Amino acid sequence: MSWHVSEEDLRAYARGELETPVLWSADAHLTSCARCRGALAEVSDPVVLDAGWDRLDAELDAPRTGLLERLLVRIGVAGHTARLLAATPVLRRSWLGAVVAVLLLSVAAGHSVRGGEFPTLFLALAPLLPLAGVALSYGPALDPTYEMTVVAPMHGFRLLMIRTVAVLGVALGLNGLATLALPAYGLRGLAWLLPALALTATGLALTPRLGPVLAPSLVGGAWIGLLLTADALRTGADVPLAPFTVAGQGVAAVVAALAAGLLFLLRDRFDLFQGRAV
Fold first, then answer.
1. Which residues are CB-contacts of 145 (< 8 A; sequence separation ≥ 6)?
2. Percent helix, strand and coil across the chain, each rounded to 5?
3. Does this model's pTM top 0.85?
4. Rg (CA), the chain
5. Cβ within 8 Å of residue 18, ≥6 positions away
6. What is the four-CA torsion angle of 40, 44, 47, 50, rounded to 10 degrees?
7. In this structure, are residues 244 and 118 in contact, taking their beta carbons and an 8 Å threshold?
């Protein structure tokens, strides 16, 4: 090889001051010329070189942000909050796919009922989905990122609320889209909304006492028991179950408000220690 990078150009290269197109030629030449690489090492400032390697290592070791996290940051969500939202376990394709499948089946069942009847299966299942999503997003038994959340410098209640809002936003949004597929029922198709809020708020309010698994499990079981009892007591198939009547909706609204108030009073109990709410 007859041509080598001059010492002056190597010094400029080391300082980051070498202009194109000489810079391009130097880059191409240094990849194949050990002599010029050795000369470059001799004229380079070791402190600057070490700092450059440190920056490169930091860049290579930095976690890659996913599509959801990038989207949240782009719309104005703080970076650390976006990371917590993106790490929420239920915001994954498997869980979302299961929710969509359940809603599709219940919507299909709603279309198959005779005229005048209520889409009972859909109204019964829709309130359980946000409750299940919140339960799956918080706690050591079900959250694969639990260890990271324990050591995060964030109040446990705030973390719970961040993930709850994320889950409710997704679950209620999917429920709303499913409701649009039942246009024949009008506003009656939205009778799941207040029970969903009541179940979720009650499950959260009971979590400090019963834990993130038992609390929503008991609330979900109580909801199913209530529906079975209401079904046994109703007088005809064209009569809505008690939770979906005007009175039942009023009761759900009151329960949701009371549970939300209790949840606020117990907010300091959500600081976590070794997998238990304290």
1. 87, 89
2. 70, 0, 25
3. no
4. 29
5. 9, 12, 26
6. -20
7. yes
The type of residue at 81 is T
Going from the C-alpha of 268 to that of each of 151, 212, 262, the distances in angstroms are 17, 15, 12
DSSP-derived 3-state class of residue 277: strand
Residue with tokens 């150009």: 9
Taking every pair of Cα atoms in the chain, the longest distance, rounded to a whole number of angstroms, is 100
pLDDT tens digit sequence for 214-269: 899 999 999 999 999 998 888 776 778 889 999 999 999 999 999 999 998 988 88
Sign for the CA dihedral angle at 200, 202, 205, 209 comes to negative
State the CB neighbour count (10 A cutoff) for residue 163: 24
Tokens of 47: 């402190």
Structure tokens at 61: 């070791």
In the three-class reduction of DSSP (H, G, I as helix; E, B as strand; rest coil), residue 272 is classed as strand
The H-or-E segment that residue 276 falls in is strand 276-277
What is each CA distance from 176 to 127, 169, 170, 180, 204, in whole angstroms?
11, 10, 10, 6, 22
Q: What 8-state DSSP symbol labels residue 65? A: P
Bridge partners for 277 per DSSP = 272
Q: Report the alpha-carbon distance of residue 80 to residue 264 in Å, rounded.
A: 23
Return the closest-CA partner of residue 241 out of 195, 199, 197: 195
